[in-house]
Amino acid sequence: MLPTTLHDVTAIITFHREALLAHKSLLSLQRCRMAANSAGISLEVVATLDRADEETTRIVHSHLANGCVDRVLHLDCGDLGLSRNQAVLASSGARILICDGDDYLSADFLIRCHQRAEALPGSAILHPELIVTFEAETGLWWQTGSDAVDFDPACMLTVNPWNACSFARREIYLELPYAKARPGESGFGFEDWHWNCETYARGHAHVIAERTVHYVRKKRSGSLNNAHASQNALIPPTRLFDLQ
Question: Which residues of 141-166 are buried (b: 16+ CB within 10 A; e: fewer)?
Answer without folding.
Answer: eebbbbeeeeeeeeebeeebbbbbbb
